[in-house]
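Field: COMPLEX_INPUT
Field: COMPONENT_COUNT = two
Field: RESIDUE_TOTAL = 719
Field: MODE = joint
Values follow.
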Amino acid sequence: MAKLIKDGAFVADDVWTRIDDDAIATEYSLISLDRWTHQQAELQPLASRGKLGLYLNSDQLAEMVAEQCRNFAVIAVDFPKFSDGRGYSTARLLRDQYHYAGDLRAVGDVLIDQLFFMKRVGFSSYALRDDQNEAHALAAFSSFSQPYQAAMDDQRPLFARVSR
Amino acid sequence: MYQYDEYDQQILNERVAQFKSQTERYLAGEIAEDEFLPLRLQNGIYVQRYAPMLRVAIPYGAFTAEQMRALAKVARDYDKGYAHFSTRQNLQFNWPKLEDCPQILADLAKVQMHAVQTSGNCIRNTTTDEYAGVVAEELVDPRPYCEIIRQWSTFHPEFAFLPRKFKIAVNSVPGEDRAATKVHDIGVHIIRNDAGELGYRILVGGGLGRTPIIGETIREFLPEQDLLTYLEAVIRVYNQFGRRDNKYKARIKILTKALGVQRLGELVEAEWNRIKDSAARLTSAELERVKKHFVDPAYATLDNNPAELETAKAENPAFVRWLGRNVRAHKQSGYAVVTLTLKQKGTPPGDVTAEQMEQIATLADEFSFGELRSTHQQNLVLANVEQRQLFTLWQQAKALGLATPTLGLLTDMICCPGGDFCALANAKSIPIADDLQVRFDDLDYLHDLGEIDLNISGCMNACGHHHVGNIGILGVDKKGQEFYQVSLGGNSGERGTASLGKILGPSFSREQLTGVVAKVLDLYVASRHVGESFLETYQRIGHNTFKEAVYGKAD
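Field: COMPLEX_OUTPUT
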């Protein structure tokens, strides 16, 4: 089991579960984009109550979800391999272009040394791969105190953030 | 030169600490080999044939005497006493121990140096003209823009795991391109539009490697302050849509070909329109801040062609030859731009010993305001030398073996480390360079031949830029044997329009190769019109004429 980090700490009681397309969607299910596309009418009540989540594969880009993102309390973005960096742009665009305000969760091959970048592009929870050291993981969020770029944690680049 | 402020230094110090922790966790078995790979790559560490290689960044080729001494110390303390300047204006150490790398990087951080993003599938060291800031022909100094790109690309949170490496080059000289911008993922040409406003023409999708492609214009004019948001838009599109299923089809050049530059441009434009007025947009204050770091040094008021220079010329033909080849005009009267060539016979192109590095640092201090540049042709430049001191400098450089008067000539070869060091190579490249140095060592002959780019790569990854050599040599593997394929007619853009070389025919053994190059040169010498360069003759008489000269007439 992956260990979930949220708000700077490990949480033990995560309620969200990814379900297969043929399983019955209940509260706190993470469903596929395909399922949402085909069964939106049936799923809408769950979504409207803030009890439905979405699970995105790494090739399902932000534009494929677009404004629909606001239906979901949680959007999990999969990193099938840590070296597949598409999820960083997906997160950034969901937040920045489509104004997603729910919980954006990195899942899959989530390793310590990606956490700092993930936080910057807009992720808010992280399903850390279970072999990863917990203390190192929490420390990794503060690897750099004043990064150069604008990102989702601070929309100003360094040159606009401080007087240089 | 850009001087770090407290923020730059803090970011670098935090990087050193981060990599130290990563290496400790790796050595303790907490990080798997394949998961450590991108971490070490993004800190410049490859595992080569015999030992790790550490590639230290020299951002846009600019560094100081003090930094050179620090590099020499690393070569002495952690390596075998030498180092290698790469075709990306960087410096490589071939024999450090992985365990030592965190300490090496900590040492280098003290002189504002690092190995950040010198490898891996991320935005690499931005390169530019080695004569930036000192030649009259340039529109503006490109280095501030390179530094701005460096800061923006350093630890960019979204672009650390791109489909493949990503290289940006900047050129600011109209009609000339020493930065080979057309064979980069993004080429930035600093230009003025019809209204006289400063900005950029942006090229995309160039590259060498397995599928060499000349970049195409994606935007004719981009205003000066829009540089970073536009780069961000291009790379965001690439990060999402670039292929990830095949590393040989993962560069943006393949995406550009697949979509067409127009369609790619539309996607980029849509994204850029969304972000161009965000807080990420460059401000004039930030541009001014960075530009202030690249003001001219305190030039003395001097005349051109001083008496000291004229006297020395009159008395010393070898000095005159060096002046003619390795020294070029400076924008400031009384000054000159000097290239120290790292192309001595018997030494791999680009290699320097720790002792030479220290001596070069001394030359920089004495003759050029303590500054140096590295070039993508694997030479070093002293950019601000007083003309009245040229003779003294020449004598000292000559004694150090750094004044071979062959800049731009046949033996000023570009050559990758090849099979002697690199695990990717199909064949050795350094011995080929050596064979050619030995065969073509007659200075009169070399000068008579004139300017020829001869580039050697040990495999199709093309670190030696063979595609854009006027003569390109590529190492290939044929049933476990090393062979060499020859191509002609490539041009990096330094001599007119950039073009890719065409393969001459079946490959040759190492023993045959110098003879083949000789045949090619003989045909050129026999066929050239007065004043015609190798490339011009090649273009006039055609590829097949050369092919016949080498392989004989086809029946």
